[in-house]
Automatic annotation (TrEMBL):
PANTHER family: METHYLTRANSFERASE
Protein name: Class I SAM-dependent methyltransferase
Source domain of life: Bacteria
Organism of origin: Svornostia abyssi
SUPFAM superfamilies membership: S-adenosyl-L-methionine-dependent methyltransferases
Gene Ontology biological process: methylation
Keyword terms: Methyltransferase, Transferase
GO molecular function: methyltransferase activity
Record-linked Pfam families: Methyltransf_25
Domain (Methyltransferase): residue spans on this chain: 42-136
């Protein structure tokens, strides 16, 4: 998994501002759900280039601290560059399933689109609970139902339809692995959190055109980027046309181009004690 995310780290870094803008309202909700406040010690797991953690850093201020972590070294390198000049932010390479920190180290743990890729979601939450102080907050953002996220679902559909099989395969954890709010809540409850809540936030994606949308999204969608890179140009072109035709039919038109629907789920809870 880390090899895949290493391969798309340059695209994630190049598009970090766009992603943070796309998820601005949802990230505010994520940080709020985790109870992040001034002076808090915050950990972002599966951080990629660190967008959610950097948003938390603005809230915790000089008296607080944020640690951005990921198991992909190239993602952490990107997060480190983005955090330059912020003395309250540090970075580290470790997996969300094996956090390199003592018990009770943090007031809050946040995860923006990382939990759904964990093989054992409850165990992953349990590891986050371990490093939380009693009563500390945990919040995880995942994509909502695939049907409510055509900005990404249409990309995956185009690849799958090209070959007549689901993409990603059912045996591989994909971006919609926790699209069901009940499954997401169960992962947090089984991980040991109390007072679990799940909220839904709309995250529409804006693009100048379907061509601009296609040019951007597959580059940082890890499984798609790797799959496309291994294909012949003719096949890539066919998939691109299939995807853009579908996006043109699904998109709404706005003053600045097109809008494709999107939605996330934000689940949160508190560590016992």
């Amino acid at each position: 998994m880390s090899e895949m995310w290493n391969s798309v780290a340059p695209a994630w870094e190049a598009n970090a501002g766009f992603v943070d803008g796309h998820l601005e309202a949802a990230t505010r909700a994520l940080v709020r759900a985790a109870g992040v406040s001034a002076g808090a010690a915050v950990l972002e797991v599966a951080a990629g280039p660190g967008g959610a953690g950097l948003a938390a850093a603005d809230i915790v201020g000089a008296s607080g601290s944020v640690l951005l972590s990921d198991d992909a070294p190239e993602m952490v390198a990107a997060a480190t560059r983005r955090a330059a000049g912020r003395p309250n932010v540090t970075t580290a390479v470790f997996d969300q399933t094996n956090i390199e920190a003592p018990d009770g180290s943090f007031d809050a743990v946040i995860s923006r689109h990382g939990l759904m890729f964990a093989d054992d979601t409850a165990a992953t939450v349990r590891e986050a609970v371990r490093v939380l102080r009693p009563g500390g907050g945990y919040a995880a953002m995942t994509w909502g139902p695939r049907a409510e996220n055509p900005w990404l679902g249409l990309v995956l559909d185009a690849v799958g339809d090209q070959f007549g099989v689901p993409f990603p395969p059912p045996t591989i954890r994909g971006p919609f692995a926790l699209e069901d709010a009940r499954d997401l809540a169960t992962a947090l409850e089984d991980g040991g959190l109390t007072g679990v809540l799940v909220e839904r936030v709309q995250t529409p994606m804006h693009a100048g055109s379907v061509e601009e949308w296609w040019d951007r999204v597959p580059k940082f969608a890890g499984p798609v980027a790797m799959a496309l890179a291994a294909m012949e140009q003719e096949i890539r072109d066919a998939i691109a046309q299939r995807a853009m035709d579908s996006a043109a039919a699904a998109a709404r038109h706005g003053s600045d181009g097109i809008v494709l629907d999107g939605a996330v789920l934000i689940a949160s809870g508190r560590a016992p004690g």
